[in-house]
Design goal:
155 residues
């Protein structure tokens, strides 16, 4: 949805202002969000609107697929037939930051009773390390599989 992507295209990590201060990380600085299976690098957004022990990121930003609007790449050739091309993309896609998608670092877990995927995970927040770049994501498939097997055995 082009309108929604324009309205809210970044996906910075929301953190309570006091928590950010205690970690020594300023608003807008790069941070690592570390899970049991990997990490990502994004910008911190310090706010009073989140609990001090919680961080939040939207799961619908930072796609590496799903079209030129989702990837914020208006000048690429359309993936589909020319007839479906939106001529407005070339002129009104002004943003370049499509955000960072946290899905890759969310451990694979499905509730054994409902089959629903988990929408939250325990993470650790830390300052970005030397050499980290915005958008870096690293996840270990073997750790995903081990996490899933452990979680499945709990049912």
């Amino acid at each position: 949805n082009k309108y929604m992507a324009e309205k809210d295209h970044q996906n910075h990590c929301l953190v309570n202002k006091q928590t950010a201060g205690a970690l020594g990380i300023a608003d807008g600085e790069l941070v690592r969000v570390v899970s049991a299976v990997g990490y990502l690098v994004t910008r911190l957004h310090a706010t009073q609107s989140i609990h001090p022990r919680v961080v939040a990121m939207a799961r619908g930003h930072g796609h590496k697929a799903l079209g030129r609007v989702a990837r914020a790449q208006p000048r690429q050739q359309p993936e589909w037939v020319e007839a479906s091309e939106d001529p407005d993309v070339h002129f009104n896609l002004w943003w370049e930051d499509q955000g960072v998608n946290p899905n890759e670092i969310m451990p694979l877990f499905a509730d054994p009773f409902s089959g629903s995927a988990a929408m939250a995970s325990v993470v650790r927040l830390e300052k970005a390390q030397t050499g980290d770049r915005y958008g870096d994501t690293h996840a270990d498939v073997a750790l995903h599989e081990a996490f899933f097997k452990t979680a499945a055995s709990l049912s």
